[in-house]
Amino acid sequence: MISYFLVLPLSQQDIQRFTSSPNRWISLVNKPLYLSLFKIKASYYLGKQLLDFPLAFEVWEKIVLNTKSLLIHTFHCSATDNLLVLPTTKYELVTINDILLERLPI
């Protein structure tokens, strides 16, 4: 089954910002009113799962504007031009703590 996401690929700078002050972001990530953190293959993305796809234009426009607003004003991501629709059959919902654990040296 294919799942669709409207996501922003996270840069190393974005990941560093989230992991350097995790307590600031933990209450916002993976909450219904905000955005979710996804790992697809080896890359991290911040965005929304699109439960229905394709969408009516008016619904699509509202979701894109809302997602861009959250990325800019809540999550302080400046490069929202890279927003994309990502279809995938395999993804993982992750937390900031998961990223921190993954980045620890072994």
Summarize the structure in words:
- The termini are far apart.
- Strands 4-1-3-2-5 form a 5-stranded antiparallel beta sheet, with helices on one face.
- The protein has 4 helices and 5 strands; from the N terminus they run βααββαββα.
- The chain has one domain.
- A hairpin with a 2-residue loop joins β2 and β3.
- By secondary structure, the chain is of the alpha+beta class.
- The mean pLDDT is 92.
- 38% of the residues lie in helices and 25% in strands.
Give the topology, please.
Blueprint: E1 3-9, H1 12-20, H2 22-26, E2 36-40, E3 43-50, H3 57-74, E4 84-88, E5 92-93, H4 96-103
Antiparallel strand pairs: 1-3, 1-4, 2-3, 2-5
List keywords for this structure.
106 residues; alpha+beta; five-stranded antiparallel β-sheet; 4 helices; 5 strands; globular
Task: Kindly summarize this structure in a few lines.
The chain is of the alpha+beta class and 106 residues long.
The total number of structural domains is 1
* Class by alpha and beta content: alpha+beta
Helix amount, in percent? Answer: 25-40%
N-to-C series of helices and strands = EHHEEHEEH
Assembly type: single chain
Q: Which word captures the global form?
A: globular
Taking the sheet with the most strands, its summary is:
5 strands, antiparallel
> Which band does the percent of strand residues land in?
25-35%
**Mean pLDDT over the full residue set:** 92
The number of strands is 5
Enumerate the spans where pLDDT stays under 50 for 5 or more consecutive residues: none
For the largest sheet, list the strands in their spatial order.
4-1-3-2-5
| End-to-end distance | 35 Å
